[in-house]
Automatic annotation (TrEMBL):
It comes from Alkalihalophilus lindianensis. It comes from the Bacteria. Keywords: Membrane, Transmembrane, Transmembrane helix, Transport. This is MFS transporter. Pfam families: MFS_1. Residues 9-410 form the Major facilitator superfamily (MFS) profile domain. InterPro entries: MFS (IPR011701), MFS_4 (IPR010645), MFS_dom (IPR020846), MFS_trans_sf (IPR036259). Its main location: membrane.
Length: 424
């Protein structure tokens, strides 16, 4: 009887790596920042700059992480980056001013980018092309679990002490250190390192005819990453989502407390509900993208998010907001899952880490701009309505761009099949 492929154990480690990397290192900020703002005495403009510092650090990191992965291997880069996250958490826990909060969040961003990009790359390396979307989606589930933990943990600790947000950072840092230790013992850079093939590789061999037909359309040929037009389009779509989802993921708790008037416990509960729903989102949309096509699945995700952001702006009903939060959560990690799987479809395997880092630069730019713009809108209007509407419109633009790209690819594929007398 054949045993379980070690790739599944590696995927479990990557799930917890993503939990620490983005779940704790990035998205815990959405739960902690409102209380951190009150504790340090930041205004909304400063709060926007603190959030942007994390995204700027992320941008710096993803711009170079691919080259470090190629030179030193994913495992070492992941663990060093997780240690940088711990440093950022400790600084945030001891922050007494705007500048300290800025530095701590900058390090959180650097560590998050440096660990999440190679983690998603490893998921793709340990699983075949036809299972890549599913594998990256499962790893992304760790981010959703991080949102759940943050949404439940932080309000509970803050309700016991006004300095509870500081204790929250220390707890997250401690858990992250455990993941570093486990990775050091068991994480591997590639299945070939221990004499294995990737999970599902046998299935890919059976589909060689299909793969050969698709390669002139979906493969990047021998173009470099930076000259590949499809990679640039993917990057700009990723930028639109980087801008759009920030309002939901960073300001949801504050919006529910300030604009709607919910208690911090109820707002934190909704944040956790979104996190619970999002745990399965990467898997769901990763599998659908494997079946339906990357761009078509991505367009559906972005259009659903547009509808939910609009709906969230026009209601204060607990039941309706709960339903909207669940639906948005069920799509949340579909975007980065499909994005990173798409990159692997368009470039050679040796340049995947570089291409992932490149498109994530666009995403990071969207993240940097978003909290500054939305912070100014909130500051000038004293409400979140304008920020949510702007976020929704940009999500719609991204979705329509995906749909157009899908139909262009489909038309080219039909033309290629026809010219080569291949039956579809």
């Amino acid at each position: 009887m054949r045993g379980i492929h070690k790739g599944w154990m590696i995927l479990t480690l990557l799930f917890f790596t993503m939990l620490a990397s983005l779940g704790f290192g990035r998205f815990s900020l959405g739960a902690i920042l409102p209380f951190m703002r009150e504790g340090i005495g930041l205004d909304y403009k400063e709060m926007g700059f603190v959030a942007s510092a994390a995204f700027f650090g992320y941008l710096i990191s993803v711009a170079v992480v691919g080259y470090f992965v190629v030179r030193f291997g994913s495992k070492l880069v992941i663990n060093i980056s997780l240690f940088i996250i711990i440093m950022g958490m400790v600084i945030c826990a001891n922050a007494v001013s705007f500048s300290f909060a800025l530095l701590g969040c900058l390090l959180l961003g650097v560590g998050s980018g440096g660990s999440s990009i190679p983690a998603m790359g490893l998921a793709g390396k340990w699983f075949s092309n036809k299972k890549k979307g599913m594998a990256i989606g499962i790893a992304m589930g760790g981010v959703g679990l991080g949102i759940v933990i943050s949404g439940l943990l932080v309000p509970s600790i803050v309700s016991m002490s006004v300095e509870g947000w500081r204790f929250s950072w220390y707890i997250l840092a401690l858990v992250t250190s455990v993941f570093i230790f486990i990775n050091a013992l068991f994480l591997k850079n590639a299945p070939e390192d221990i004499g294995l093939k990737s999970v599902g590789e046998g299935e890919v061999v059976k589909r060689n005819v299909t793969s050969t037909v698709e390669s002139p359309i979906e493969g990047g040929g021998d173009k470099t990453v930076y000259r590949n037009k499809k990679v640039w389009v993917i990057g700009f779509i990723y930028l639109s989502w980087g801008f759009s989802y920030l309002v939901f993921s960073t300001f949801l708790v504050d919006y529910l407390m300030i604009d709607i008037g919910y208690t911090k416990e109820l707002a934190g509960l909704f944040f956790s509900i979104a996190g619970i729903a999002s745990i399965a989102s990467g898997f769901i949309w990763g599998v659908l993208s494997d079946i339906l096509g990357r761009m078509y699945a991505l367009s559906v995700v972005l259009i659903i998010q547009f509808a939910m952001l609009i709906a969230l702006s026009f209601t204060n009903s607990v039941v309706v907001i709960g339903a909207e939060v669940v639906i948005y959560g069920l799509t949340l990690w579909g975007v980065p899952t499909i994005m990173n799987a798409s990159v692997a479809d368009f470039v050679s395997s040796s340049t995947v880490p570089i291409a992932m880092g490149f498109v994530t630069i666009f995403f990071s730019v969207g993240q940097i701009i978003s909290p500054i713009v939305t912070g100014l809108i909130i500051e000038s209007t004293n409400q979140y309505f304008g920020a949510f509407i702007l976020s929704a419109v940009i999500s719609l633009i991204g979705g329509l761009t995906c749909l157009r790209m899908h139909y262009i690819q489909h038309a080219k594929q039909r033309l290629y099949l026809k010219s080569n007398n291949v039956n579809m």
